[in-house]
Specification:
With about 290 residues, the protein is an alpha/beta fold. Helix content is about 40%, strand content about 20%. It has two domains: about 5-70, no CATH class; about 80-290, Rossmann fold (3-Layer(aba) Sandwich), CATH 3.40.50. It has helices spanning about 5-10, 15-30, 55-65, 100-115, 140-150, 160-165, 190-200, 210-215, 240-260, 275-290; strands at about 45, 65-70, 80-85, 120-125, 130-135, 175-180, 200-210, 220-225, 235, 265-270. Helix 3 (about 55-65) packs across helix 10 and helix 4 (about 100-115) runs antiparallel to helix 5 (about 140-150). The longest helix is centred in the C-terminal third of the chain and has 25 residues, at about 240-260. This is DUF58 domain-containing protein. InterPro entries: DUF58 (IPR002881), vWFA_dom_sf (IPR036465).
């Protein structure tokens, strides 16, 4: 299993993206039996390096089995990737990785999958400094552009204003939008943006990043916490507050998921201490439903 730490240790985002995507496909195939009734004359198992345009995405979404079709090619789609680059994404997990590091790896792997499938893929980086936008393209030069933008991005400040983000929803275009965010917001600004994207693009996959040490509250004894966006601090005894914290966290996660699904978003919680496989699988499922 390729952990986020191992991928990050490569210090090479294009290589990490390729290994994450192809390792996931190959590993998922190898871990499952072939099942009965399949017409093997029309399929062969996926092998790293195969053209992903020939992958049977519908079969993958139904069963997590990865096979190459010998004839058909799926219809290409437009995939728009969104990265929340506000300062809260600098939160560091016990494995040493920031949420931003995990998000870079994840979005690079998703871009690799989409581009190899023949999709037009674009990237928007959302930060208070302004909207960094790469329009969706399907040419071979797009992946290096996306990798460079991800590698050079730093998380700063608060989530950008509605005015800054207006170009994202300026026109209707059917697409699969994939947003990676920790969903820390001051006044519903992320929620409103995703609602508008749902109305203009039609399909939004929301990948909610939560660090492992946030989920299990691994801190001990007296601790000072600082809000990465406002600078405010709070001091507490972690051992005394653990139960209350975990109850409040679970309530927030439950409410967040319910609100997202009421908006028609495809919501998934991701633990940054775990491999990228869950997110890649959800991307394939959503893509198949649009194909």
């Amino acid at each position: 299993m390729l952990t986020p730490e191992l991928l990050f240790a490569l210090r090479n985002l294009p290589l990490a993206a390729k290994r994450a995507a192809e390792g996931f496909l190959a590993g998922a195939h190898a871990s499952r039996r072939h099942g009965v009734g399949m017409e093997f004359s029309q399929y062969r198992p996926y092998l790293p390096g195969d053209d992903l345009r020939r992958l049977d995405w519908r079969l993958a979404a139904r069963s997590d089995r990865y096979y190459i079709r010998e004839s058909e090619v799926d219809t290409s789609l437009t995939v728009n990737l969104l990265l929340d680059a506000s300062a809260s994404m600098n939160h560091r997990d016990d494995n040493g990785l920031r949420k931003l590091d995990y998000a870079r790896l994840l979005l690079a792997a998703l871009a690799y999958l989409a581009q190899k499938q023949g999709d037009a893929v674009g990237l928007s980086i959302l930060s208070p400094a302004g909207l960094q936008h790469l329009g969706a393209l399907s040419d071979t030069r797009q992946l290096p552009r996306i990798y460079h933008a991800l590698e050079t991005t730093e998380a700063t400040g608060a989530f950008p204003s509605t005015t800054t983000l207006a170009p994202l929803t300026a026109r209707r275009q059917r697409a699969l939008t994939v947003c990676v965010s920790d969903l820390y917001e001051e006044d519903g600004e992320i929620t409103r943006l995703l609602g508008r994207l749902r109305a203009t693009s039609g399909d939004v996959l929301l990948l909610h990043l939560v660090a492992g040490n946030e989920l299990n509250f691994s801190y001990k004894g007296p601790v000072t916490f600082r809000d990465l966006e406002t600078g405010q601090t709070v001091q507490l005894d972690a051992d005394q507050q653990r139960g209350t914290y975990q109850q409040q966290l679970q309530a927030w996660l439950r409410d967040t998921a319910q609100q997202a699904r009421r908006q028609g978003l495809d919501y998934h919680l991701l633990n940054t201490a775990e491999p990228l496989d869950g997110a890649l699988r959800e991307f394939l499922k959503r893509r198949q439903q649009m194909g």
